[in-house]
Specification:
The protein is mainly α. The protein has one domain. Helix 1 packs across helix 2. The chain is elongated. Keywords: Membrane, Transmembrane, Transmembrane helix.
């Protein structure tokens, strides 16, 4: 039981790290290309939904 909880924590931590990294890259790209200053919260919500939807597709889409 403890291993399952620990595994979920590790996976969510990795997903959060990728979320922050992609957020940083996406903001940097958009700022350098278009000069538009998007808010952090918008990109965190966007990438969070993107990662959740991709995880959902990979989990349930192939059945």
């Amino acid at each position: 039981m403890i291993k399952i909880i620990f595994g979920v924590l590790v996976i969510s931590f990795i997903a959060l790290a990728f979320n922050l990294m992609f957020t940083h890259i996406a903001i940097w790209v958009i700022k350098s290309l278009a000069g538009i200053d998007w808010s952090m919260k918008y990109w965190q919500v966007f990438w969070g939904m993107f990662i959740l939807s991709s995880m959902f597709k990979s989990s349930y889409g192939n059945k």
